[in-house]
Amino acid sequence: MPEQPPYLRLADELRRRIAEHEWTPGDRLPSRAQIAQECGVGDNVVRRAQELLISQGVLEGRAGSGTYVAEPRKRVRVVRSSAREQPDGSPFRADMKAVGRQGDWESRTDAKVPAPAEIAARLGIAEGELCVRTAYEFLADGRPVQVSTSWEPYDLTAGTLVVLPEGGPHAGAGVVNRMAAIGIAVSHAVEQPEPRQATAEEASLLGIQKGSLVTHIRRTYYSDQGRPVETADIVVPAALCEIVYEIPISR
Questions:
Q1: Burial class of residue 208 (count of CB atoms within 10 Å of its CB; 0-12, 13-18, 19+)
Q2: In 25-163, at which residue ranges do the beta strands (DSSP E only) sit?
Q3: Model confidence over 10-52: pLDDT tens digits?
Q4: Are the CB atoms for 70 and 240 separated by under 8 Å?
Q5: 183: Cβ–Cβ under 8 A, 6 or more apart, which residues?
Q6: pTM of the prediction?
Q7: Distance (Å, whole) CA 229 – CA 125
Q8: Which region ranges are annotated with the description Disordered (predicted)?
C-alpha cells in the first residue's frame, strides 16, 4: 500500500489535536512556520494540510489574521423531491421555513443564449439553439447555501408569460407550475448527483474555499410527452448542506 502523502499525515495530526481539545473552536492556530518547524515538514505541506481542513469545515482562514479552528455549524437540510413542488410557493422557501430559516434567492436571466454542446444534448436540441439561461444564488438567512444555472429552450416559452422564469405573473413559481401555465404537463425529473471540488467562481459565490467539496446535481425536467423542458446544474457545498432525497410511494 503506497505511503500517505505528508500533507495528509499532517492533516490527520492537526485533526487529532483538535479532537483532543489542544485547540478548541475559535482558537487561532500557530503560524505555518511554527507548525512546520514543530512537525519537521515544509511550509507547503502545512499550507496543503490546512487548505484540506478548511475545505472540510474543520478550520477557517481569516484574511490578514491567520487560521482558526472553525465553530461547529449546523448544516442546512436541502430536500430533493418532486412531491415538494408547491402550487402557490417555493419548495426552497418551504424547506428553509421547516428548519427555522428564511429562504430567498437572487437571480439573473439572459434570453436567447446559444446552447453549449452538453446543455443541448441534455435538452435534446441542436448545439447553438437559443435558450433562456438563469443563474440563481439561494440564501438561508441571507447566507448563500446553493447556486444553480437553469437552461430552457427558447422556442418552448417564447411569446408566453413564462418566458422569463423570474419575471411576469408566474415569477418564481418553479418549472412545474410555470410549464403548467402554458399547457405543458411536467411528468418527472431526473437528477444525477456527483461529488467534486468547487471552482473559483462557485467558491466566491458560496463563500467557501476554492477546491472545497461540493455536490454537483445535473437535473432535467421532462414533459409527459418525453421532451426535456429544463435542465440545470445545481451546486451544493458539502460542509454547509446535507442533501436528502424524498421518494414518494404510489399506492
A1: buried
A2: 59-62, 66-69, 76-80, 103-114, 130-140, 143-153
A3: 999 999 999 899 999 999 999 999 999 999 999 999 999 998 8
A4: no
A5: none
A6: 0.73
A7: 11
A8: 80-110
